[in-house]
Design brief:
The chain is built from two helices and four strands, in the order H-H-E-E-E-E. By secondary structure, the chain is of the alpha+beta class. It has one domain. A two-stranded parallel ribbon has the order 1-4. A two-stranded antiparallel sheet has the order 2-3. Helix 1 packs across helix 2. The protein starts with a helix and ends with a strand.
Length: 65
């Protein structure tokens, strides 16, 4: 993934989730899930339960309960 190719989409994600202080790393991970539709994201970060890919879709997560 080239950050320059996805800069606009990443910036848009960070603006959308500004109230949660989405980090650049989090925005890049969300963007990757948008580009790789058949994926599961492993994370310990509870914020990913609130983030959405492609606007409304849940991000498939793999995380401890």
């Amino acid at each position: 993934m080239d950050l320059a190719d996805d800069a606009s989409a990443i910036e848009s994600l960070m603006q959308r989730y500004a109230d949660t202080s989405m980090s650049l790393a989090d925005a890049c991970l969300v963007r990757l899930t948008e580009r790789l539709s058949d994926c599961r994201l492993f994370t310990l970060d509870a914020d990913f339960e609130h983030y959405r890919r492609n606007g409304r879709h849940l991000i498939p997560l793999l995380h401890p309960s």
